[in-house]
Specification:
The complex is a heterodimer of chains A (368) and B (580). Chain A has 368 residues and is an alpha+beta fold. Chain A folds into 2 domains: 4-240, P-loop containing nucleotide triphosphate hydrolases (Rossmann fold, 3-Layer(aba) Sandwich); 244-359, OB fold (Dihydrolipoamide Acetyltransferase, E2P). Chain A is built from 8 helices and 20 strands. Chain B has a two-stranded antiparallel sheet with strand order 1-2. Chain B starts with a helix and ends in a 10-residue tail after the last helix. The chains are: A alpha+beta (368), B mainly alpha (580). The structure holds adenosine-5'-triphosphate (ATP) and magnesium ion.
Amino acid sequence: MAGISIRGLSKSFSSRDSDVAAVADVDIEVKDNSFVTLLGPSGCGKTTTLRLIAGYITPDRGTIEIDGRPLSSPGSVVPPERRGMGMVFQNYAIWPHKNVFENVVFGLKIRKLPSASARRKVEEALALVNLSGLETRYPSELSGGQQQRVALARSLVVEPDILLLDEPLSNLDAKLRERMRLELKELQLRTGITFVYVTHDQAEALALSDQIAVMNLGRVQQYGTPFEVYAHPANRMVADFMGLVNLVPGKVRERSGAGGVVEIAPELTVKVDALDAFAPGETVEVAIRPESIRLAASPVPGGTWATISNHVFLGNISEYFATLASGLTLRVQTHPLQQLKVGEACTIEVDATHCSVFRAGAGEAKAA
Amino acid sequence: MSTDVMSTTLRPRLAPRRPRTWLRLEHVVMGGAIISLIVLVVLPLAFLLIGSFKGADGVTLDAYSEVLTGRLYVNALKNSLLLGAYSGLFSLLIGLPLAWAVARTDVPAKPLFQITATLSYLSPPFLTAIALTYLFSPNAGLSNVLMRDVLGMPWLTFNIFTMPGLVLVTVMHTFPFVYLLASSALQSVDASYEEAAQILGASKLRTAFLITAPLVAPAVLSGTLLAFVNAIALFGSQAIIGLPGRIVTLPTRIYALFDYPPEYALASALSLVFILITVAALYLQNAFLKRRSYVTLAGKGSRPQMMQLGVFRWVLLACVTIVFFVSIVLPYATLIAVSFSKSWGLEFWKNITLANYKFVLFEYNVTQRAILNSLVLAFVAATLAVLMGAVIGWIDLRTKLPGRKLLDYASLIPLGLPGIVMAVALIQFWLAMPLALYGTLTILLLAYVGRYIPLGVRAANASLRQVDHSLEESAQILGASWTTTMREITLPLIRPGLFAGWLLVFVPVIQELSASILLFSSQSITLAVAVYNLYETGYIEPVAALAMINMLIIGAAIWLAYRLGGRSLTSRNDAAPVHT
Ligand SMILES: Nc1ncnc2c1ncn2[C@@H]1O[C@H](COP(=O)(O)OP(=O)(O)OP(=O)(O)O)[C@@H](O)[C@H]1O
Ligand SMILES: [Mg+2]
């Protein structure tokens, strides 16, 4: 199968009055047989990166190599039809004038496969995505989920080394999305195809990926395993994007060894493990995950008093907003069975090992 | 997937299989379309421009000074503008109320409105003109004879060979432009706009004036300007009605300049003045139409409330019935009656005969050739215009070719070229070329394709826009070449739209007279020219028979085309036959 190495990839689009750097200095190494996700907010350059990998657009700078063979550079681009990749488009791009069978067999016809073995392969591919028996249906007679699986079967049947998927689950309802997520992951493990997957849904990225590239403003903010980007975000953009997070200003109070103490409110300080980069007195920003804060109805030693100012019951978790005496409000997520009333006093406790500290005002890597 | 033997054949071809070929089919096709457009439109126009400055000794402005001051030319210009203005005005006065009645009131028999507009649009104006001369020519016209000599009511006679007569014939053909644009605008005005005004206390009438009228005004004005542009370009009716009444217009003046010896410089200069007027009107029209965009933004709202008209609805129905009668029943009933009568007059029904049909079909040796020529030309011209349109539309929407916008604009130029001007330009260009095309079927074909390319481009553009680019890209990533993608994906998907475009070209081409009249020869004569020539020669009754044959062929061709591609057409609503 195949690994992809992307080096210094940049692409700008000139619009009416300015140039938009859609992708800027992107470096990504995708290992063979792995599942890599490009994650980021709308307009951050995910689709552009994917289309650069597919060869639809020519980079301004940088190179894309597959197994050491250069495919894209500013001077020369191997066109998509000679890359042997598969791609599942955000809108599926199922051809409306061809039925399911004709859609899926298309790539095999291009490869001039004898029709008997092509038919067998199409049947296998449709079985793989649980669509057996729908061969003669037209796209207009399929549900959204079924169309998506046709798109998947169409790109899988030619046994690509690399499969590119652009938000393939975004049009599905929550239940179906959950199921397709599992099926995709299983499929990737079974086939060993290298998946490059685009999404703006962090939960999807965390669930599926071997590696996640978090992107913003055309740049890769962090590239790492799901655990790394979730637990140790490289900057506040990544912290903010990987789920709900309390981002609160603070001040470094003291340093000891690699760690130290950060004060986020007069009555609340947290002990942090990694404070290497900061000096005492420096203003910082602390990212505290809502699930890293514990609430207790009765006083706890080392705890800080707060008042419950709001409550949202979400089913599998309970969300509270706890306001400190100094006015700072923190979002807290607890077990749904823990029940506190709005207005009730409580103590909070912060699990400092899961806090990340960033320099105040220092944002994420910005596009040039 | 377990078939490992097969897998080897499926391995991707990462590196290019063959050395980069510098000339690929897509480049040939694209280049071909661009060159064709240049040869069909740009070069003839350039020769027209050059020709207008040619004098006996080098470059001169003589032609222009003659055209802008000479009595003959100023008169023609004045008559054309007058004709256009009246036609626009009356098209508005007829088209708008009819459109409003259908879209917003409870008037009965709405299909009759639609049918009236469509048939009036499809009916060739030169045939209507001929038909009306049978009734209203000042001395022998049947209606005039009846009023004057039999009923003794001379004040009820009507001389068709006058400006009012010309306007009458023209408006029958041009009011559908206003009707079609106004009704589509009225249908796209979301009823919630009107309801919002009503809930604020505005009466229905106030709402119509304050809310609806401003919203549809751009479309209505644009329809009126289209009526104007089309009205002044019609050679046939202006020759048949205008010339006997000494009302010379731009097309007939230009035509006269080709009497031996042809005055190329004057014809060119006059043509350019003609273009200027047309382009100015179309520019305005486009500006109005652009302002319309916010109307279509409104989504599919609730069905508009239909205004209760009471007794007044019968008045409107009477109006449309009169229009239907005057523009369809009267001309065609007359043509039929004349075509079957031995000699046209008050007692024509006493000697019914088939001799006229026998004469034009079997004895007049031009007819059969003309029918064949017209069918072949219309078929080939429509096909070429649509294919070129598809390529040009594709280049504009799907490639990054530098200058593709320019190409798109160039393909719209012919909208501003009246048929006779196209002919003048082609004659000058091809006379200067070493190829002897003048008088051949080919030059007629070039004129038709060049003139109707905008319709092809527009149809292709509209349908290409509806095909998401990713449908083509997904074929590409599966390894399909450009040719395969076109054949398997793009063309099948835009076929219904292209077919609609094909019909839009076919219908006007098979009745084309304005350009053909300068370009035909006895070998390349077309049906419309044959009718016109026979009329000019003074065969009264056979002309009607030939006209009926012409009409039957047009009708049969349209019917056949609808039958062949009807299903795809009825599912599209952008097939409204608006053309210029
Ligand atoms: N063809 C183009 N022309 C001009 N600008 C473009 C083009 N394609 C993308 N852009 C711009 O580049 C930036 C990145 O676009 P891209 O489509 O890659 O975003 P994305 O991350 O896929 O967003 P989304 O999640 O909304 O799909 C955006 O600002 C976009 O407006
Ligand atoms: Mg995208």
